[in-house]
Amino acid sequence: MQGANAALNQYDGNLGPVTAEFEVNGTAVCCDCAGVMVLPDSGVLVVSDLHLEKGAAFARRGMMLPPYDTAATLARLAALISRYDPRMVISLGDSFHDRVGSQMLPETYREALKELQQGRDWTWIEGNHDPDRPSGLDGAWVRELHLESLVFRHEPVTGSADGEIAGHLHPAARVVRRCKAVRRACFASDGRRLLMPAFGSTTGGLELRHPAMRGLFDRQQLVAHLLGRERIYSVAFHRMNG
Amino acid sequence: MKTESPPTADQPGFELPEPFVNWFASRGWRPRAHQLELLGETASGRSMLLIAPTGAGKTLAGFLPSLTELAARGKHKPGAAGGRSLHTLYISPLKALAVDIERNLDRPVTEMALPVRIETRTGDTPQSKRARQRTNPPDILLTTPEQVSLLIANAHAEQLFKDLRFVIFDELHSLIASKRGHLLALALARLRQLAPGLRTIGLSATVADPAELQRWLVAQSPDSENQAGLIKVEGGASPIITILETSERIPWSGHSARYAIPDLYEAIKDHTTTLVFVNTRSQAELLFQELWRINDDSLPIALHHGSLDAAQRRKVEAAMGRNELRAVVATSTLDLGIDWGDVDLVVHIGAPKGASRLAQRIGRANHRMDEPSRAILTPSNRFEVLECQAAIDANYIGAQDTPAMGPGALDVLAQHVLGMAAAAPFDADDLYREVISASPYRDLDRNRFSKIIDFVATGGYALRSYERYARIRQRADGLWRISNPQVAQQYRLNIGTIVESPMLNVRMVSRKNGRTASRGGPPLGQVEEYFLEALTQGDTFLFSGKILRFEGIRENECLVSKAWDQDPKVPAYAGGKFPLSTYLADKVRGMIADPSSWGALPDQVSDWLRIQKDVSLLPGRDDLLIETFPRAERFFMVLYPFEGRMAHQTLGMLLTRRLERMRARPLGFVASDYSLAVWCLEDMGAMISEGRLDLGQLFDEDMLGDDLDAWLDESWLLKRTFRYCAVISGLIERRHPGKEKTGRQVTVSADLIYDVLRSHEPDHILLQATRADAASGLLDIHRLGAMLKRIKGHIRHRALDRISPLAVPVMLEIGREPVVGEAHETILAEAAEDLLAEARAGN
Predict the structure, then answer these.
(1) In B, which residues are within 8 Å of A228 by CB distance?
(2) Which among B466, B487, B490 is the nearest to A67, CB-wise?
(3) CATH of the domain at B202
(4) Same domain, B328 and B267
(5) A75 lies within 8 A of chain B by CB
(6) Residue among B536, B818, B838 whose CB faces A4 most closely
């Protein structure tokens, strides 16, 4: 119950904790209710599944979704980068919603991204939506990255759990209390592996009970850290239904 | 006012051609006056509306003009030049009805050996047959509104419809007030362009305002109001309607009507075939279950509702047609004019909500005009007794209410514009003129129309970043065309205005040694996803007449196994789906206010009102009664507007906001069709008497201004409405079996899109459409506004020291209401507390 202890330390009885702090494979992590994770010891900020230009990707296929998702996602990210001022940012894959996303990125957004990259290291991790190096943008581009006791990759690999930080699945949890159910995006961790929530403004979620999540966690140790409006809610997997 | 009169047809009026005279005679019938009148009027080129009660030979009347004209035309020569075109299009709201009509028409056509080919076309028609119907159309095509939209969006439309003479609309009253009716009105406008000489025939049950339907049937022009002619057949024998007589205690609240089961069973035994109508699926399930529990004679009693598997429904319908059933428990899926032999009793469970709906349902019994129908109303609680009594009075005096027809919806227009581009390149001005000839869109201004075209092309965003991806484009010749063939394909897949709430297939699996077998069981039907949201494995519930054990959700399937429980654990909460109609609400208020009318009510109900009169006040017909009283460390305010659940819910939201500002510290509210209860930490009775709370101010009409706007934007109701608008307008793709996303994913993304759009472009045309829809639909704001106006200066407050008799029903609803907005964070906080508690205990 590392997560719970950390949350308890933060708990002020009123608003509740904005972040959940615990360890994954021995490395301290801090999960923010805005959907990013920070490694306090190394000054790294991790964000996953930005899905930039999702609206445009749909428009290319004839569905004219609002063209404001990229602006909204980047604005939220900019606020967090300015709050934490990280030494390095890791974008954990699916940074763009489709292959041509970075190529066709409108200039204003490209400028905004470049500004965020100023004065810090930036690593793009390859994702299934964006299997190519982002075009016309700075930053390293790798399939996976090892840092402290952690390994960062887009898709979780069944079996090799120790220290894996992954995205891809857009985890969400459904909490039932008093016959009422609430569903939110979440960080999910059993202390060995951690799944990041999707950060993109128009990305959906997949419940932790979904077959795609099978075999990833020790469910006895699994805690979902749900993203609330102003705080994070940590709920043990085995207590989801009360 | 003028009526449409295109060039005259070649038929004489009022006289039936010989084969028809002989045919009527051979069956011992004589043509009815309205049948001949309709024939004569249409022959002289007029479009007509025929209003007649069930059993008046309405359908035959509607088809006589076509049949006689086709008989005179003679056989069509195969391979004749010019290609074939449809002669008559018959459009019904239900595909089952179209199939039924085909059967009914077969007899006269065969017996008179008419050279007429009749076919149906529905969603079930095989692709090969549909293709053939386009190239080699029948004389008469029986179909649904959606199929018409598909046909006019096809490149062959011009050829197919060029000689169209008649369009017959069945059950027109049930169509026109909805978005489905808007889409159909637009399709009709296009049909008029393709076949300028066509005449329309509307068939309808009695309605409050026939003029609306008469306008709907003909082309409107900006400077005059055109109407179709009207033929009205007065109703036959008055139906015999009673309220179920019972010695059982009628409950205060709830919707199960469980108390009435034994009496109901006796009624079924006393009649040949009984139709039992209920308002919701879960009510149907419960009643069916309860009837079988006491069905010692093993009477064949069946169940019919829209969630059941189609094959199962067809089986029930067929058995019904063969008169093999003694009773069918059904929801509104059986509402419309399907003609089923020997029904001699209609039972209605719960309050009928609208008098028109009641009349329609009672029409099912005895499809012969000269015999009175027999119906029993079964109220499920005490307020419903009042409502049933009011409905009985309304039916006898022939009062009818259909929802007023609002302006045509913009999302529907967007869908139609894309369809028209798929059919052929269009000129925007021409299409605008065509669109405003449809009565729901007659007031649409040119500017809005341009916005819709823009929306169809690129989404219509202020940030113009999608120009290069446009779906339709204006070319050098000024005409708008689709950018590529996929756009037309996309349109066809997303047509229609009926957006299902996300549904999951229910599949039976076996459970062995406590483990669930994976697949392979039979499908039982579909269930609304929201119903499953709160279920956990092992919960039992009623479905398809069985008690089932919930095993889990796998992809888009809800897995269940057989349960051996006597009673389902999850109560089938069955609130009314339809709100109490304005007309009936007025009747109910009138009845409560007038003790001399209580004689018609059962003793237990009139006693209830009498005690209310003694300990508090009776709400007056135009008053608003407000009671305040303390109970269990809280202070309650109960009001009795009788304006329907939706309007009350909106009022509850707005009142709690205001009470918050007035420092009454509100905690929650619950709404029923009749009343509304709000509870606070502060003593509102004391606040009112000390002048700290002004009721006039609390209920001022200005609550529909800023408070409403502020609340609306956050409301889940608006999100749900947005999802419908987004799907209908083509912004989001509809889901398709096995192919597209599940409904769940659509829900999620529509919500997120709504949030993004609202914060970046709050005046976007689709958000405007959403707000307009919500105001007239889920929020019932018009009704709430009318009520606030009505009660101004007529608020009567009574401070009580305890709950009043009239307040009991709504107080019993507390705790049963579904979760809304703000409560979400509270639930999460509660769950997070558990983990903290666990951690504290572990330390």
Answers:
(1) 825, 828-829
(2) B466
(3) 3.40.50.300
(4) yes
(5) no
(6) B838
Same domain assignment for residues B257 and B208 = no
pLDDT value of position B342 = 74
Which residues contact residue B301 at a Cβ distance below 8 angstroms, ignoring those fewer than 6 apart?
A: B268, B288, B291, B292, B295, B325, B326, B327, B328, B329
Q: What is the mean pLDDT of each run of 10 residues along chain B (843 residues)?
A: 38 70 88 91 94 79 94 65 79 81 88 92 86 90 94 92 95 84 97 96 85 94 91 76 85 81 93 85 84 91 81 80 87 58 81 64 58 82 86 60 76 96 96 97 96 96 91 95 91 79 75 61 71 66 76 75 67 49 82 90 90 90 92 90 84 86 83 88 92 91 78 70 89 62 48 88 92 77 87 92 90 59 63 71 53
The answer to whether the CB atoms of A181 and B733 lie below 8 A apart is no
Residue B260 lies in a domain: yes
Paired with B608 in beta bridges are none
Residue of B nearest to A206 (CA): B745
What strands lie across the sheet with B666-671, from one edge to the other?
B666-671, B676-680, B634-639, B624-631, B795-799
Is A229's CB within 8 Å of B534's CB? no
* Residue B496 forms part of a structural domain: no
CA pair distance B516, B563, nearest whole angstrom: 13
Residue B368: per-residue pLDDT: 55
The pLDDT of residue B101 is 86
For residues A55 and B732, the answer to whether their CB atoms sit within 8 Å is no
Distance CA B49, CA B202 (A): 5
Of B546, B562, B578, the residue at which a domain comes to its end is B562
Whether residues B836 and A4 touch (CB distance < 8 A) is answered with yes
Final residue in a domain of this structure, among B515, B533, B562: B562
B839 and A4 within 8 Å at the Cβ level: the answer is yes
Three-state secondary structure call for residue B498: coil
CB < 8 Å to B757, chain A: 66, 68
For position A106, what pLDDT does the model report? 94
pLDDT at A70: 95
Retrieve residue B273's tokens: 């075939």
User: With an 8 Å Cβ cutoff, are B752 and A202 in contact?
Assistant: yes
- Domain membership of residue B553 as a residue range: 503-562
pTM higher than 0.90 for the full model?
no
Task: Tell whether the model's pLDDT for residue A242 goes beyond 90.
Answer: no
Alpha-carbon Rg for chain B in angstroms: 28
**B133 and B227 part of one domain:** yes
Same domain, B131 and B175: yes
Q: Is residue B185 part of a domain?
A: yes
Q: Is B92 part of any domain?
A: yes
Q: Are residues B375 and B314 in the same domain?
A: yes
- State the total domains in chain A: 1
Residue in chain A nearest B418 by alpha carbon: A62
Q: What is the pLDDT of residue A116?
A: 97
The pLDDT score that the predictor gives to residue B818 is 42
Q: How confident is the model at residue A7 (pLDDT cuts 50, 70, 90)?
A: very low
Q: What are phi and psi of A195, to 5 degrees?
A: -105, 135
Contact between residue B693 and residue B662 where contact means Cβ atoms under 8 Å apart: yes
Give residue A56's domain range.
2-239
Cβ distance B840 to A1 less than 8 Å, yes or no, reads no
The contacts of residue B588 (CB under 8 Å, 6+ apart) are: B383, B386, B387, B390, B580, B642, B674
**pLDDT at residue A226 is higher than 80:** yes
Beta bridge partners of B383: none
Q: Of the candidates A1, A69, A178, which has its C-beta nearest B839's C-beta?
A: A1
Query: Looking at the partner chain, which of A1, A3, A182 has a beta carbon nearest the beta carbon of B827?
Result: A182
B380 and B509 both lie in a single domain: no
Mutate to test the interface with A, among B491, B751, B752 (most CBs of A within 10 A): B752
Contact A71 B760 (CB under 8 A): yes
Contact A176 B534 (CB under 8 A): yes
All residues of chain A having their beta carbon less than 8 Å from the beta carbon of residue B463 are 67-68
Average pLDDT over residues A83-110: 95
Q: Are residues B197 and B249 in the same domain?
A: no
* Number of folded domains that form chain B: 3
Q: Are residues B112 and B218 in the same domain?
A: yes
